[in-house]
Structures
1.
Amino acid sequence: MTSMIMGISAAVAFYSFMAIFSFKHYLRNKGYGRWIKIGFILSFVFASIGVIGSILTPILLINFAKNEIEMSIISISIKFLIYAAAFCLIWWLLMKIAGILGEVKKEHIESNSKKTKCMYCSENVIPIRNTTNYCLHSILTAITASTWLIVWFFGAVKNTMSWKCPSCGEINSNLEKRDENNTENNDNSKVEESVESIKTGLSFFKEGDFDAAYNILKDFTEIREPEVCYTLSHLYFMDDREWKDEGKAVKYLRYSAERGHNEAMYELGRLYMSGSYVNQHDRIGWRWLSRAAIQGHTDSQLWVADTYALGLFMPPKEQSYYMAYVLTSIYLKKRPDDQEALQLLKKSESNMSVEEIEKAKAKAIEWQPKASQDYREREAQYSNR
């Protein structure tokens, strides 16, 4: 992901440098008639869009990679100024290099011109500047400037047309399909009836009447509400039922976890750690367990704290008794008599300085669980790496 961001940013920056050179060309070599005005305006627009785009593009790409889609005006402004300063510095260095290369080229042309003779009179020739086709140059500038406008326009349209369904959690689905569904389901009484049926099914499950719960919830397999998916996963995992289906169980457990359900994230993480029903993968398992921990899942907090203390499932440099102390302290708020947690806290404390201990205690006191998040886009990025 980092190499891709650097590659795209470099390409955009190169494109903007071309835009500035085009603009400087018109300032140095003014054309004639109406073409000077058209060329000047188009080059100025091209250069302006190119420079702004080359600064904004890496900002947006980096924030997208970090899943920080929502940015404040202040954050964008600060980052824009930092990137603009870096852009100006690189531009100044390039101008210095271009100046040196220009002098070398000039000396080379002058030295070669002394060896060149006129084909008619055999006298030494005098190098002159080639004339520019301002008409063709203006057309090319218009095309390249339009490229930027088209890219940014469709980027804006895509952002405005993206949506997230508050009911099932689907993101960026086909708008026409959504409109058809809205038309078909416009009857409020049917919607209310479905909601009540789901509530009844979930209630049966909690009461232990699994047959009644399955008979109701099996008809709502297309609904991506986290609690429904989590319940269906448990139903399909049941050994003593004829409807047992481990593939469906894992699928619905993943649906629920990706939509931020704490218990689902914890259970999916444990499946990956053990290799049960899925390909064993410690890093993926640790990722799901750590997400559950920061959202307040108690068992996940102690488990992740232990991995921090031992440096398991992560590079050795990430071993952190500080994080182990913080997570264990948070865990002990709900389970103060847990002997395993108390021993882990004591072990972490023995490997920390006094300053680190005080800082960790303050962190644990101030800590608040994060709100439930949607991890689908983030997981899609991991799978594409």
2.
Amino acid sequence: MGAAVRVIAVVKNRDELGVDPDVTSRFTLLNEKGGVTLKRHYRTGQFAKKALVTVRSLRYYDRMGLLSPAAHSEAGYRLYTDEDLLKLQHILALKFLGFSLNEIQVCLRRGPTQLAEVLAQQRMMMQEKRVQLDGIIRALAETESLLEAGTCDWESVARVIEVIRMEQKTDWVKKYFTDDQLQTMEELGNSAYSSEARQSLSSRGSWTEEDQQKATTDWARVYSEARRLSAGGADPGGEEAQAMARLKHELLSAFTQGDPEISAGLARFWEGFRALPAERQPFDASPFNAGEEGNAFLEQACTIFSERNRA
């Protein structure tokens, strides 16, 4: 067989090849210019175990367009390859450096030249982060000195803990918002939520950048579906509209956790947001607005959903 001929053979007995037992039973042999390459395929769970990530993360990266499986089996299973593992390592490295998922998408598309420019920008951000961390370290050292001297002010210790906790929770947002925008959102939140609601929200686990990316994607999907279904004259009680209403219900429930104070605060937040002049609104809310007809359609679908699922 000539070297220029490419041969693809499917081998179903992995024992014949002496390969690892954690891979799937289908392999592709490629013969190009005299060389033979074995491409191993891993199902999602196997690939997640090999890469030390969660299945949920892999599915999320697929949905975000960062890392899609190389193929699908006849039964519909996602199949990943060793090349996908290298791509995942690249994604995780950028994520470790603090890149947002959108920035990672850009880096993967653009290649090394633009990546070098983004890395230089990221280095500057890391230097700013180091300044913040140095401030926390100084505060900790001062508190340690007070402890050693026996004159510790426990309220000061609590404040240091709070600074560290809040830094972990909110530092990533500084990549997306200016100080003025963050201040505007803080003012909106303080005026919208009661002290009890703010305390309840702050006591939850940290809200990560990935959490925000997922929430943004899910909420945008609700309103894009409302626009699409409304424009197409769909039935608000139909299957698609009710799936949309269910998603909105689940998103709201996850945020409010049934707390009426948080629900009321959320409504006041958006009321205050819309009352601001467009130039003062701290972020683009257009993805979360289906237009007059779409919003009316969404409200109708949600009313039907509530009636059907009333306890």
3.
Amino acid sequence: MIDKLGSPYIYAATSENFKALVLENSQRGPVLVNFWSRKAGPCLRQYPVLDQLIHHYDGRVLLINVDTESEFVFTKEYAIASVPTLKLFRQGRVVETWHGYQPEAELKKILEGYVTRDSDLKLADAVDLFAGGNARAAYEMIAELIVVDPVNPRLPLTMCKLLRHEGRYAEAIKLIATLPPEIRQHKEIQQFDALLGFYAELNDIENIAGLEEKLQTSAANLELKRQFVAHLVAQQQYEAALQRLVEMMETEQAYADNYAQQAMLKIFMILGSEHPLVSHFRPNLKRYVH
């Protein structure tokens, strides 16, 4: 049975151990959470598929089962309206969600983009080179890894992050634009691409430190607000950035080809659909999109 497990890769979660099993473990690798109920036939059909899939990956993905009949807190926190619902966690947050019974091939297609590959081990060496001051050798190593393993989305993603660290935002954006569609559509790359757009805007700001002071005397200046939004996003102050965008939409809905609406969608992408700020601010977006 699902609640009586004997695998080192499969665990049953409760409110007491969920943080350790899911959130903490997802910092090291992907964790697939199965929200299930013994009363639902699709859940019982889904589990053998999950069991086979998890053992196929031999520890590179953990499966955590949450019994929604006994762990009611999770049905509300993660908006579980039906079972089975599968949620994939990475870096402490949900990156993928499936509703209803899923065939193994469909799950495997998505999981392949998150499980550790041989090229990831060598990628760590490239990051060490960069940290040691040898950026050129790091980029060359990552480029070679991409040729050998072109389906690993973490290779170009890491290169883009290193480029961002050096302030080379335009190059990182260009790199993502040249990736094959199946890699470019990977959620983490889409999120980083959205983030890079805000960083790129910072290059055009001469005095970031004086932006807030200028806004106090020029509250209706939408260009200043646009610059300040980019600054807030770069500082991960997403709620403040979203509030500024609402103010921009209230002042001039169609400013700069609907910049505020587009920027809000990008922040939603960065945060992920499960983030509470998305559900909080989405009504504002709907109000100004016709």
4.
Amino acid sequence: MIEQVLAILQGMEEADGYSVREVKTESEEYFFIRRQLDQSRAKETAHLYAVLYKKIDEEHLGSAQIEIPVSATEAEIRAKISRALLAASYVQNPVYELQRGSGVQEYYQKEDIHAIAKDLIETFHSVSDRQDTWLNSAEIFVNLHHVHAINSSGVNVKYDYAEFETEFVVDAHSGDLEVEVYRDLHGSTVDRKQIRSAIAEAMATAVDRCHAVPTPNLKKSDVVFSGEAATQIYESLLQLTNAAMLYQKISDWKPSDPVIRKPMQGDLLNLEARASLPGSSQNIPFDEEGRPAESRVLVKEGIVQALSGSKRFCDYIGYDAPLQILNYRADGGTMDQEQILQEPCLELAEFSDFHADATTGKYAGEIRLAYLHENGKVIPVSGGSVAGDVREALEHLRMSKDTVRYDHAEIPHYTRIRDAAVTGIKNR
């Protein structure tokens, strides 16, 4: 299919450039109710994506992205490409160059998706239910992707990579109250200990939610992130190193500049893009523009060292080192767990919704479960919300020494933010 599309593109004088990406996927899927297999299936799919470029004038280059059905006839392919080129002619982006390459680059892994699925199934079967909490259901999706990406500037890469997703629900009950907790885990290699730990944590969360009391209206409080939601905090900071954010004047993070203009009174921020992390679903040998995966220090001790971003936006700001972040690490700080939870705080463990927006700097979430650390006591609470500003939090940021991995992210186990706004559902 990709050869046919390329032959058509190479014969069309109207196209001033192209990027074509074909992805063929082998999959196995399993669905469990409690420990019983309800259904399973294996399938193969194929998708072909193309970006067409049209030169408007010496200063502008338009583009349009399409997906071409693998069943399309030659006439249908030509018609779809022609419509995309027409659409591209109305997009007046400043001119930029495509990623350049030379020769075919290939990288293949010998992955057995059936073996990965078998490991996951055996891991779930090894977890014991408790009287007050149990595994309700689980779904397993294992994929092996075969990718071929080519552009008109010489990029030609072929590679494959495996990844899985597993979703599960645990239930807990106390009296007439029953609580469900949902988890969605991603990876490439099965770490049985880590998955069993995630199931145990979900069970503990479900039980604690059964016994939680309403969150008090704290108004302002130090908060400690101790779950996966914290990845959004760090990812919003990572986005500030992206060339597109600088071009759009959303970020002012430039190499050699501090991340904030005030003295940092907490732990210094360290961020690194990583080509790979153990077990990550994003251990992909090439990025979407055909560059080999790369590790790069972006922020060191609170000082910006380098930028990330697409070839287009790096061209726009005159930065000659584009980088797509696949995996990342945020170094741990200076505090032990006991120290970070020693002073009064609200430890945020579970949200019904949470987001951190790099464009505004704001974060906000609705609390499903938190732990109020106060007067030597730890009380599970539920309800209410938390909000604040990520950039402002950097001045007094505190992080635990130990780190934890969530798929493609490695971050401090505990992240303490000063004076967040906490709206409870019970007045003190």
